[in-house]
Backbone:
């Protein structure tokens, strides 16, 4: 009996030791759990106070391309092999124009023939003419009309039609138009030349004159000339190109066989809101009833196809293409 009691005592001590170890482990686990909880709470509070910097770093990392994140810019192996960009590319011009005030280049009104035509370029004070000696009329007449010129009344209408002294070769004369039924129609109108006595006189050169039906010359054609001056008076320098549509089957007029065009055109351009805006008109050489100029307006591209003339070539290609393909009626008051 004594031996059994002596054996029971060690087992009780062993149990007490195991329970003490378990208590210690529980305390350690509780302490670790409390530490983890504190760390999580600390990180949550930190993120609440500083969320922007963390997001910025993530966005910055996402916005960088894979090459930029992996290979430093100074150590890129293909950097020197890339071909340099062409100076003054269309993209570069568009970027520059988007942040600066666009201005029309000098002599931007001067067009270019895209088809073979006889021409002599003659510069007068108020206009430039591409003269066609085969038909004794102009291929085109181009000029700029400023607000100051449009409101000037310095010179009176001369009404003296004479041959252009700078023309080389044959020219029309007054007798060609006598009793023909055609008006001597101005391309660059005398009404746009009142700012200079010389410009007024030169506007009556036959290089600036074409045979026009009276109902056209005195009607819708005159209305368009007056409307063009009103656009210039709005404070915009207008680039204007006008002339006959020359074809190979023009009927001759008079002794000097002046070509009688079947159609006439006028194209206009000015800068609005840092962009060039264009509009065009095409009329048959006939009498017109009362018509709305707005209803007669067409894109400049349409006139280019009919005439074989490239207008406003001095403009940057991207701006020229957009301007000539569209009419922004909000920029044109009728």
Residues:
């Amino acid at each position: 009996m004594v031996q059994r009691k002596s054996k029971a005592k060690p087992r009780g001590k062993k149990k007490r030791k195991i329970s003490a170890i378990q208590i210690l482990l529980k305390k350690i686990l509780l302490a670790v759990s409390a530490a983890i909880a504190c760390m999580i709470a600390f990180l949550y509070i930190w993120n609440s106070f500083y969320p922007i910097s963390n997001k910025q770093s993530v966005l910055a990392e996402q916005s960088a391309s894979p090459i930029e994140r992996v290979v430093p810019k100074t150590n890129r192996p293909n950097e020197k092999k890339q071909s340099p960009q062409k100076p003054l590319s269309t993209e570069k011009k568009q970027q520059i124009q988007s942040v600066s005030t666009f201005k029309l280049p000098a002599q931007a009104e001067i067009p270019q023939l895209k088809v073979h035509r006889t021409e002599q370029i003659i510069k007068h004070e108020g206009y430039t003419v591409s003269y066609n000696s085969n038909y004794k009329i102009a291929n085109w007449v181009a000029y700029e009309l400023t607000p100051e010129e449009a409101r000037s009344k310095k010179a009176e209408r001369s009404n003296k039609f004479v041959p252009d002294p700078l023309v080389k070769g044959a020219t029309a004369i007054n007798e060609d138009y006598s009793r023909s039924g055609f008006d001597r129609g101005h391309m660059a109108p005398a009404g746009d030349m009142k700012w200079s006595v010389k410009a007024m006189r030169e506007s009556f050169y036959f290089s600036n004159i074409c045979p026009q039906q009276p109902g056209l010359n005195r009607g819708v054609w005159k209305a368009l000339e007056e409307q063009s001056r009103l656009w210039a008076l709005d404070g915009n320098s207008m680039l204007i190109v006008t002339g006959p549509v020359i074809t190979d089957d023009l009927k001759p007029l008079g002794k000097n066989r002046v070509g009688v065009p079947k159609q006439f055109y006028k194209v206009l351009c000015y800068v609005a809101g840092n962009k060039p805006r264009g509009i065009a008109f095409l009329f048959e050489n006939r009498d017109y009833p009362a018509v709305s100029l707005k209803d007669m307006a067409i894109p400049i591209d349409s006139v280019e196809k009919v005439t074989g003339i490239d207008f406003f070539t001095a403009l940057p290609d991207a701006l020229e293409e957009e301007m000539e393909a569209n009419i922004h009626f909000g920029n044109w008051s009728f």
